[in-house]
Amino acid sequence: MATSPSNAVARKGRGATFDPDNRFAPTRVEAVDDGWWQEAVPERLATRVTEEQARSALAWNRSPDLPFDRSLNPYRGCEHGCIYCYARPSHAYWDLSPGLDFETRLIARQGLVERLEEELARPGYECRPINLAGNTDAYQPLEAERGTTRRLLAFLLDCRHPVTLVTKGALVLRDRDLLAELAKRRLVRVLVSLTSLDADLKRTLEPRTAAPATRLKMIERLTDAGVPTGVLVSPVIPGLTDHELERLLDAARNAGAMDARWMLLRLPREVAPLFEDWLAQHYPDRAAKVMSLIRQCRGGQDYDARFGHRMRGQGVFADLLDQRFRQAYRRLDFPGLPALDTDAFRPPRRQGDLFD
């Protein structure tokens, strides 16, 4: 087990226990207790938000592991504070730490609708589903204040452009009206991320996300509104949440989920030491076992970034998880999510049908 940094402290409402160095910074600072008075570390950290004028809207990827080739992210960083978040390392690109900075120093992107309008209007644009917030959650608490996600959904509805969403934020229910209109035209699919049914575990693992019972209610209410909704059981954490796999699928199906997917815990770059210290702080009795199982699934390492391996892992334990998921999926008879319509797309600024 790695030794915790001297400045590591579990703070109420925050996932990370410390700020790892920005890997792009030319220098590093290490706090050392030299016996002199030092300012006390605050128990609570306030969230600070800065604004960024977006120069582009869509982010493109060629990953064979992802079911989409383009995404749109309203916010950088995420106040949900999930300790395992694979997006944490991206915060270093903004000269911030992937640790506490990631969940307390957020960046709200401005002008996204205007940039998206420009990009969709380009002559060579080919319509395929946009994944809204492929990096951080579009329905994190900041969305209640900014409303960027809602404006983007309204614009995509006007353009008849298909969109997919993955969220663990109850604020998605605010937009049921727009999502229902998109669903009528086969333009939307929603996945609700569900990690554990243990509310106490959730409070430290994903401190500012919706409670497990609330997420099941999200599935139920979206489904009742006619929005095709599934569940993403992610991440499955060996030795900590894997025993809940079948119960999570049962609960989601009972709530109306039409489809289910799963992903193994990923620990890229700075996420590994952050997660390992979180284990030491909150589950010291299980920390060694959890890390041992993770490494068994990752070829002896904390993480394996290879395509085809990073989402599922390898080895006996990872194979067993996949078998358990497949058996439960068949038993619960998930019908699957409908295909999305890409033919109805209307490029912005084009003369529309006056009677549409």
Short description:
This protein is of the alpha/beta class and 356 residues long.
Structure description:
Helices cover 31% and strands 13% of the residues. The protein is α/β, with parallel strands linked by helices. Strands 2-3-6-7-8-9-10 form a seven-stranded mixed beta sheet. The chain has a three-stranded mixed beta sheet with strand order 1-5-4. Strand 7, helix 5 (176-184) and strand 8 (188-194) form a beta-alpha-beta unit. The termini are far apart. The model is unreliable at 351-356 (pLDDT under 50).
Low-confidence stretches: 351-356
**SS strand fraction:** 5-15%
- Rg (C-alpha, Å): 21 Å
Instruction: Give the biggest sheet.
Output: 7 strands, mixed
Q: Give the % helix.
A: 25-40%
* Mean pLDDT, all residues: 92
Q: If helices are DSSP runs of H or I spanning 4 or more residues, what is the number of helices? A: 11
| End-to-end Cα distance | 63 Å
Which class of secondary structure composition applies to the elements? alpha/beta
What order do the helices and strands follow?
Answer: EEEEHEHEHHEHEHHEHEHHH
Number of distinct beta strands: 10
Anisotropy-based shape: globular
How do the strands of the widest beta sheet line up side by side? 2-3-6-7-8-9-10
Helices and strands in order, then pairings?
Blueprint: E1 48-53, E2 58-60, E3 70-72, E4 75-76, H1 100-104, E5 105-110, H2 112-120, E6 130-132, H3 142-146, H4 148-159, E7 163-167, H5 176-184, E8 188-194, H6 199-205, H7 212-224, E9 229-236, H8 245-254, E10 260-264, H9 271-282, H10 287-297, H11 316-332
Parallel strand pairs: 1-5, 3-6, 6-7, 7-8, 8-9, 9-10
Antiparallel strand pairs: 2-3, 4-5
Helix pairs in contact: 4-5, 8-11
